Amino acid sequence: xxxxxxxxxxxxxxxxxxxxxREEHGIDLRLVDPDAVWIIRRLRGARFHAYIVGxxxxxxxxxxxxxxxxxxxxxxxxxxxxxxxxxxxxxxRFRLVHVYCSREKYIEVSTFRSRVAPATAGELGNxxxxxxxxxxxxxxxxxxxxxxxxYYCPVDEQLLDYVDALPDLRQRRLRTLDRADASFAEDxxxxxxxxxxxxxxxxxxxxxxxxxxxxxxESILSCSRERVTxxxxxxxxxxxxxxxxxxxxxxxxxxxxxxxxxxQLRSRRLRLPDSxxxxxxxxxxxxxxxxxPLPRGEMFGxxxxxxxxxxxxxxxxxxxxxxxxxxxxxxSAPLFPSKKDLAQAVELVLHTARxxxxxxxxxxxxxxxxxxxxxxRQAHGQQAPAxxxxxxxxxxxxxxxxxxxxxxxxxxxxxxxxxxxxxGGGQARGPTN
Length: 433
Fold this sequence. Notes:
9 strands, 22 helices, about 50% helix, globular, 9-stranded mixed sheet, single chain, Beta Polymerase, domain 2, cca-adding enzyme, domain 2, alpha+beta
């Protein structure tokens, strides 16, 4: 084991981080995304430090295949953009860079963040503390849990650990960087992540942490609805959604995120494992593990399918799509699905309720269909006589007859006149009406 040393606040030299070699951390380089390795090599070639961070490192050590790879560096966003032609700088709360490796795939690259407090940031003239860049040590201290504060360099295959994260990971210990109550008060979404990580990694949930989640669970309602919705989507796509939501139900976090489902379980006196929702979550996890995950909207529809099917009046009205959208929007509070996700969820519910009815997802009726006008072959049959009755013939070709050859003769005459005009021997084009 190696160590990284640095100066303390008083100027003394002290140990800052553990450096684990390939034999000690056991990460298989073949499981690392080659595009992430390419980005890190280019950043290092420009004399920057760069590492794979977060969940990818955690999953590699835990023996799981990461779904995506994030990179952290000391290069600033505009410096990153100058190095990669396909880079795009995004975000206001904290600027990130998406380096596109193809049309559909990108690697997220972030700059090390500092621990500047918001009040201090305001005094320095910047109201946004998150855009204050710092050192790798400061960045590690800003992470939510120790198991997400590991830094892996695939070039020299070394793992940097500033917060004793590797022992926590190997001992299946979930620990926040700051005091748990202060950490959850700063960002209540961390309670959802704590439940997710414990279920995904099969960690025991600490009793003091569980009591804290039960006491502070209502504070999630103060968070952005979009952020909470995004966390729920990550849970549904994880392949372990049943285990995560079952643990959330035991900690009474489920009733805050899914109040409509919690009320249904109470009214029926059902446990989540014995409910139709539990069966659907297990089926969703099986489909994900088999490599056939559902789109985001359909996963969302999976959650509210049983609630919607119970309300048969929604399907019998004149506009079932609109009624279902309003119902799911209300029942999903405090979540806030996008319009696209809502449309896919409604399509799933309608397809389940009416499996023999042909539907065209995402197609809007044309203006003629909306007003009851005939479409297709019948409509074209009505339009053709109308065109002939109005005598619509080209003004520059008087006397030409209609029919399939008229357009071809018109084009040939035009080309002939152009040739004559170029050669000087043709007739001048007359005025058009």
